[in-house]
Amino acid sequence: MMKKCVLFVMAIFFISCSNDDATTKTSAMAGVWKLTSLTTENPILVNGVLTKNFTQIASNSQINFIDTTSGTISYVSSIGFFSQTINQNIEYSSTSSFVSFNFDFTKNNNLVTFYKENNETVNLVLDGNTLTMEVGSGIVLGNLDNNTTENYAIKYVFTKQ
Hints:
Elements: H1 2-16, E1 31-46, E2 49-53, E3 62-65, E4 70-86, E5 89-108, E6 111-115, E7 121-127, E8 130-143, E9 148-160
Parallel strand pairs: 4-8
Antiparallel strand pairs: 1-2, 1-3, 1-9, 3-4, 4-5, 5-6, 6-7, 7-8, 8-9
């Protein structure tokens, strides 16, 4: 009877123990998040066409969360469209800037904050499998004839792959 009690206690002991040290904790954020939308709030006149969708220009933008505290981001940070009259014809040109940086991050509820190496922060909003980032002056429209520019805010939406 004593042997059965000892075996029973040992069986309970082994069943109740778990090996927490062997379990690797991974972040739900881990993985690649691709840009799926880059838009302005209201349509703007670009090269004679009214548009608010600029996703195609920045289609190779993405975020890669490496682990529970760090990652990398590469994205089109600004887009410029310019017009100029040459020989009584309007001609258009464009430019864009692509930026990449490593970051550490924290997640507090649905707010994800990236910390860049220069202590600058970038805030994104998490909603399910999407991350949204807004930039105050990501698109510039310029008229080279009169040296005027207008800045427009853009919204990036990254979706987990």
